[in-house]
Amino acid sequence: VTGIDEVNYQGQTVRLIRVRNPWGQVEWNGAWSDNSSEWDSLSPSEKQQLHHTALDDGEFWMKFEDFLSNFEKVEICNLTPDALEDNAAHKWEVSIHQGSWVRGATAGGCRNFIETFWTNPQFKLQLTEKDEGQDECTFVAALMQKNRRKLRKLGAALLTIGYAIYESPDKDEHLTKDFFRYHASRAKSKSYINLREVSDRFELPPGDYIIVPTTYEPQQEADFCLRVFF
Length: 230
Known about the structure:
The protein has helices at residues 44-49, 64-70, 114-117, 148-152, 177-182, and strands at residues 3-9, 12-20, 59-63, 94-101, 123-127, 137-145, 161-167, 187-188, 197-204, 207-215, 222-229. A four-stranded antiparallel beta sheet has the order 4-11-6-9, with no helix packed on it. A four-stranded antiparallel beta sheet has the order 5-10-7-8, with no helix packed on it. It has a three-stranded antiparallel beta sheet with strand order 1-2-3. The model has no long low-confidence stretch (mean pLDDT 88). Strand 1 and strand 2 form a beta hairpin. The chain is mainly beta. The protein folds into two domains: 3-70, Alpha-Beta Complex (Cathepsin B, Chain A); 94-229, Jelly Rolls, CATH 2.60.120.380. Helices cover 12% and strands 33% of the residues. The radius of gyration is 23 Å and the shape is elongated. It contains five helices and eleven strands, in the order E-E-H-E-H-E-H-E-E-H-E-H-E-E-E-E. The longest helix is centred in the N-terminal third of the chain and has 7 residues, at 64-70. One of its GO terms (cellular component) is cytoplasm. Residues 1-80 form the Calpain catalytic domain.
């Protein structure tokens, strides 16, 4: 997806979405495709605003409803800061936390296991910069379990992992069982799943938060890497 916009067509507002086929061999031939008649109703300035061309370049516009009918899944790729160009509009920063779930110490399992959940590693997250024109801050949290591919040769499977995000109290200390018993999370990974990495995009008000990465079951051991892009 390379662009979105709205146009007035026959007295109605039409939502358009621009899609690029990276292989450049096949393009959309329906409504609002490169050579469709719908473009005849737009002025030259409107076409220029939409960067409309009839080139066989793999990029095309289509109605949002047609997009929903033809595509089932959209994946959003967030580049790390070192991959962004110097003139990028938004400079992503990243904080990286290495940790381990250790049986009997820091392998507390998910929130379902309230007696041990609080023993999981906890990491501070401070959100300060609101999105432009918004009241919230966007960030991406990605949790990866390390060395599982290597350990798979020894019979180890990928663990089911995820994380929860809590608003941090004023005290700068490891949160206790009572805190989690009486405070709900402000955000969390969509699901616990046995993937090498789970990540999600969030929007929260500025403030201090605590991220708790966990395995689903308690007492499961692994090393992990938690990255937060903001």
